[in-house]
TrEMBL record:
Entries under PROSITE patterns matching the protein: FE2OG_OXY, UBA
Gene name per UniProt: Alkbh3
All residue ranges annotated as the UBA domain in the record: 887-932
One Pfam family, short name: 2OG-FeII_Oxy_2
Name of the protein described by the UniProt record: Alpha-ketoglutarate-dependent dioxygenase alkB-like 3
InterPro entries reported for this sequence: AlkB-like, AlkB-like_sf, ALKBH3, HIT-like_sf, Oxoglu/Fe-dep_dioxygenase_dom, UBA
GO BP, one annotated term: DNA alkylation repair
Keywords (A to Z) from UniProt: Dioxygenase, Oxidoreductase
Lineage start: Eukaryota, Sar, Alveolata, Dinophyceae, Suessiales
SUPFAM superfamilies in the record: Clavaminate synthase-like
Domain Fe2OG dioxygenase: residue ranges: 368-475
GO molecular function: dioxygenase activity
Organism domain of life: Eukaryota
Amino acid sequence: MTEQTWQSCHASDAAPEKRTRWCRKLCVPLSPGDGNSRQVYTLGTWRVSREVYLWQLSSLDVKLLVDVRGNPRAGREEQLFRGKDFTKALLSIGVRYEYWGDRLGEEAVEGAEAEDIQRLLKGLLASAPFGPICIFGHLHEPQKCHRLQLCNLLPSGCQIQHLMWEDHRAIRVVGHDEANSLYKRWVDFFYQRRLLEEGKRQRERSQAEGIASGWRRAKLRETEREDAVAARLAELQAGSLPTLRWEELSAAEWGDRLRDGKAYRLRLPWNTEILWYPHFLDDGEADQLERKVQDRITMYHPTYFFQTPSGVVQETVNRKGQARICDDFNFGIQYDSSKDAAATYVSQKMEPWTRSLLRRIEGASEAVFNAIWFNHYRDGTVTIHWHTDGNEGLGPDPIIGSLSLGATRPFCFKSKRAWKGRDEEIAGIIHLTLPLFHGSLVVMGKNSQRHWLHAVPAMEGIHRERTNLTFRFWALEGFETIDAAEAQGKETMEHLPDKQKFRLHVVPDASLVEQTCRNGARLCPVIVDSPSDVATTTGDMLRRLCDHVLPSGIEHLHLALCLGADKAEGASAAHAERPQRELLDDAQPLRKELERLGLLPQPRHEVPKILLALIRKPGGQLHGAGTTLPAVPPRKAVELNPEDAKSIVGAEDLFREVRLSGVGRYSPPRGAQAEVESESGDWIWEVIQNLSGIQRKSKGKGRISQMVFHQSSEFVALYVARSKSTVHLVLSTKRRLQFPSLLPADAGALRRLGLYGRLLGQVLKEECPNLEFQLGVRVARCPSSKQMAAHLVSRDFLAPDPMDLTQQHYLEFTGGPQTFLPLDDLAKCVKQGSKLQSKVQLHDLRCHRCHQFFGDSMRQLILHLRRCTAPLEPKRGYGGGPDGGGEAEDKTLLAVKMLEEMGFAGCGREALCEILLKAEGSLERAVEFLAT
Ligand SMILES: O=C(O)CCC(=O)C(=O)O
Ligand SMILES: [Fe+2]
């Protein structure tokens, strides 16, 4: 291949600057005939059994398999993971396995010099056994995999052929020139489409400018002119964004800057750019848009089929709702690996409101888009796993704008490879988390898909829905592959049973549409696939909907079939005119019922929708357990103290986060459920780490998940296993923050944590109006090297199990700022670098009559005092004995001394005097007061 042919292959002349560094490096021609003549095959991973792989390699007489996967244990094909097992299996058919992914993997070659890669390839060939070799990459199609570029750097004598699976047995050979031309076609097609789109925008804008300056007659509609102006303004704002550089800020500083309400251009390693607009839409605009999306966009929850290791086929409704808008393309949703299981997802068309929004986002993103993809997360248990948006339709190095509405969820970025910074401390895989506030926009700019993964992790304790709109430029018609996040760890089915596919459009009854469920989520129409099992009852169907799709906190529902002219039409028709309904019995097999009514669609027709209605079932119960959810009235709004708003960085956003998150009821897990075994003794950190796993199988029902009362993007509020009071939570940062190593830069996070506690306190006060709350850190714990934790505790100290309230806890919680320090004071101390020392003095508790010791168990002492009949020693001079006479003051002093001897010296004499007065002089009652 000559330089010219390479160039024309890999970059359109019209967009030379768009060529990646990688591609340019690969343009270096190879000297022909360097003696390395060799048969080279390439192959990717696919859902084909390992036996068939081995059989094909063996029949091609391959002698060496060269694994060039950067991460050879990634993806769904576990049987093809690098490991002893795979190596042995290859050896059994005479194929040697060599791992080269560390030098020739996707990451290793990114930005590398072509000469260096060539040198490595030469070395590889020189050491390879005689005979054909096979380069093994990740992706099935060679034109999408970096192995194609590697092959372009092989010595010219090599005979290169790419192998692709035709089905689960047969293989197809694609010539190297053909693979290169497929790649070129893809790139050229993509750039041409984008140029076309850019041209359109330019024309629109110059028309708008022409009209504004009065030299051109209006050809654009008013809205189009406004869109063009808004886009231009957004573009100007983008152009003047201040820059934050990853290396220049500590984790604490990032936390502050991402919460200071300002928009930034973030520059990350590997020449990556992210634009961050925390308030791209103001609150009013964001509310309005969320409403509009609820009204106009119908979310689709596709059903995926997985084969479990035992061979059982599982049918799973995707909990994440999806919708796509695009005038140019439809998108495919593939249900499993067989081609005919893919069904076209018909995109909705652009409307004036979506077009306006898209234009504005384009300006802020410095890009053009032609598609909006929606993701709907009904609550914090719906997630998206680590992935890149690397679909071929997005072209090379796509730019993606991502707008968030509803509950704040964190957007996690992590680098695909380790950063080798000068500073040891910041070397390694890089993590950056953005709090996706209601109305925020993140633009994943250049290199963000190439070098980084992103995810939206689970967030138990968040009951509010979230909608995400991603703005993309899509330029290829094709099939979307199945959601990698949902498929994680599961093997998809090879063959689906031959069945008819149709979709069910589930529309809530008009009386339910306006009903807001717990925490403000609205019951909206959804589209789901028909269940494949003919025996599925309408009760099963309803349960599936409740478990996976509908917002929680709705009243008892019933499923009805809508009959009438609009039975297969969209939600709007159902809203406009209520069709006749036929109530479906819970036990009725759904499919049979549809068949009986003559509604089953004919196979091979375009997937039709059948309208099912959700209707209120007065006082009824859903069939089976776990589907009856009482409606809970939304909580009253929390309030932000104007002082906090002024003085705390990020106060407004934190306030909005809590307000919009749908804080749940206080319901601590009971008994063993609440205990977290902690090997390190730092259970809070262990829980936090556990929670930071991006996707959890338990979907909010696991043991660790049950420990969570609430989360914000920065903090977590956990139930404690041995609660010391009616309400008792520990609050901590999700970032590692240990007491002895708190730095002045952490003061901002501590002040926000204080505010978080106050806001949660307000919510809890509404739930338990008779309780008073206090928030602070136990000073005695501060010197320990454990995760920093604050306690939000009600002042009644009525521990569910009184044995759990020790003297130490009691004295600390009631000892004022010397033992229980408010977070704002802690922030001040940290800022000034002062040390904290607890003033609590602990004494063993003991009975003043029989002198029995009770360690620090207040409960045991109280129980004992109620029983102890030992006489009071007369010489102790208290309790009405003969030496006990004298002045009342002396009597009190004696009693105070006795309490001190009993182990309450830490309370201070003044407090003991007061308590004695309250207890009318009775020591036993004084002890009980001390405990409550
Ligand atoms: O919901 C989000 O913010 C992320 C969505 C996403 O990454 C995607 O759709 O690819
Ligand atoms: Fe994504």
